[in-house]
Specification:
- By secondary structure, this protein is α/β, with parallel strands linked by helices.
- It is 26% helix and 27% strand.
- The strands form three sheets. Strands 2-1-3-4-14-13-12-9 form an eight-stranded mixed beta sheet, sandwiched between helices.
- A hairpin with a 3-residue loop joins strand 12 and strand 13.
- The longest helix is centred in the C-terminal third of the chain and has 13 residues.
- The radius of gyration is 17 Å and the shape is globular.
Length: 228
């Protein structure tokens, strides 16, 4: 059976919620939740979701023999990382002093205790949990149909720090600006949960299932923006 979209199963993450959201926006597509490297390698597109802690995530990836499979997929086909599936694309996480996949240059850092207060001095909780505005740092086909500053749903205590600002596709504030979306080549990854973000989240997932990296996006051209 040919697979259009593989959702990587490494034992962590709300996989059913992610797969059902993708099936909703792409009812004609073959969507499979799988930990089989051969199925992932053969799929047309790959979604890499995740929840939990970085050390557990990397341990489970290696226990299932998925490290090279994920690296190869991120190099070769439309690839969407979600939450922990974004963080471990980078080189290192402060969470458990964990070496990650190293696909993208940069680190993952915890929200610093001393900075966690609003402009009135009120303490902000970690994890950052709930709806927050996402600002589009650069045009991209996955942003098409989503308004600047649209709200998405977050649950996280750590955030990514890319070495190159060129990969930053979106940012949010809690209480300072932090990167919440990155894009380079065939990779798009987000800290928030599109599958929990109602219409805008479904729009992003719908854009992903029709995205052809390297081709200009017609909707972007019509809006006057240049998309990657």
């Amino acid at each position: 059976m040919s697979v259009d979209i593989a959702v990587i199963d490494y034992g962590m993450g709300n996989l059913r919620s992610v797969s059902k959201a993708i099936e909703h926006v792409a009812p004609a597509a073959s969507v499979v939740v799988t930990s089989d490297p051969a199925v992932i390698a053969a799929a047309g597109r790959v979604v890499f979701p995740g929840q939990g802690a970085a050390p557990d995530c990397m341990r489970e990836i290696d226990a299932r023999g998925l490290r090279q499979t994920i690296i190869d997929a991120a190099r070769s086909k439309p690839f969407l990382g979600i939450c922990m599936g974004m963080q471990v694309l980078f080189e290192h996480s402060e969470e458990g002093d964990t070496a990650c996949l190293g696909i993208l240059p940069g680190t993952v850092q915890r929200f610093p205790h001393e900075a966690m207060h609003d402009d009135r001095g009120n303490k902000l909780k970690v994890p950052h949990m709930g709806w927050n505005n996402v600002h589009q740092a650069a045009p991209h086909p996955l942003w098409v149909g989503i308004e600047e500053g649209a709200r998405f749903y977050f649950v996280h205590s750590y955030f990514v720090q890319p070495i190159s600002p060129d990969v930053i596709a979106g940012f949010s504030h809690y209480p300072f600006p932090f990167t919440c979306a990155v894009a380079t080549g065939n990779i798009f990854a987000v800290q928030f949960h599109p599958e929990k973000s109602q219409n805008d989240g479904l729009t992003l997932l719908g854009n992903f299932v029709t995205w052809n990296p390297g081709e200009r996006d017609t909707a972007c051209d019509m809006s006057g923006a240049a998309c990657a």
